[in-house]
Amino acid sequence: MRATLPRLALRLALVVILVAANLWLALWLRDFAAEMAAQGRMDLLGATLAGLLLLYAVVLAIPFVPGAEIGLALLMAHGATAAPFVWGATALGLILAYAAGRALAAPRTCRTIDRMGFDRAAAALGRLRETDPDTRLRRLEDSVPRWARGWVLRRRYLLLALLINLPGNSLIGGGGGILIAAGLSRLFRSAPVLLTLVLATAPVPLLLMILGPGILP
């Protein structure tokens, strides 16, 4: 036990450092885009904008990151011309999070987590992978209040879209955390998830393209 405590403390410290670094990067990206908007700097080179959007997509896939605020700051900085690209980057980041959740339950990932010393987490992921979808659905149904069971389970893709657009959803994991959980549960099929994400991230960019930048705060 004594030998494992320092290793456990080191792992926890590493996790805390990684989470703090990711949050710092997300906040920096948001503030950088907001500063460009305040200065009216909408003439960045295409490569610079592409790099920002790629970074935004990667950061958005991280749990508990305020992705909506970063996307809004990018839209304010670059206006309607960048709206389709911000839309695509937002959907891409959430798709990456969903794919990461699906990959977490893969046998190779479970073995890697087990070798790192997180044997309980690896065992839980293994049990989740080995449980058939109907059993997982029944267990989820048992954990939901009776009055909400039919709505939540039968319309879970709609619920996913609502959670993505819920103000302050970073408190429950953000878009990245929500999609990682969706992928990990294996209760969502990939094609409907892709369609859901494309539609759920569309409203603000589409309104900006149609109505112009006047809709932004």
Overall mean pLDDT stands at: 76
Taking the alpha carbons of the first and last residues, their distance comes to 55 Å
Helical stretch tally: 12
Task: Give the helices and strands as they follow along the chain.
Answer: HHHHHHHHHHHH
Instruction: List the uncertain runs.
Output: none
**Helical content (DSSP H or I, runs of 4+):** over 70%
- Number of structural domains: 1
Instruction: Estimate what percentage of residues fall within beta strands.
Output: under 5%
Radius of gyration over C-alpha positions, nearest whole angstrom: 19 Å
Give the overall silhouette.
globular
| Alpha-beta classification | mainly alpha
Number of strands: 0
Largest sheet: none
Organism: Limimaricola cinnabarinus
Keywords: Membrane, Transmembrane, Transmembrane helix
Protein name: TVP38/TMEM64 family membrane protein
Transmembrane segments: 12-32, 44-65, 85-105, 157-181, 193-216
Write the layout of secondary structure elements.
Blueprint: H1 4-39, H2 46-60, H3 67-78, H4 83-104, H5 107-115, H6 119-130, H7 133-143, H8 149-154, H9 156-164, H10 174-185, H11 190-200, H12 203-211
Helix pairs in contact: 1-2, 1-3, 2-3, 2-4, 3-4, 4-10, 4-11, 4-12, 5-6, 9-11
Which labels suit this protein?
single chain; 217 residues; mainly alpha; 76% helix; 0% strand
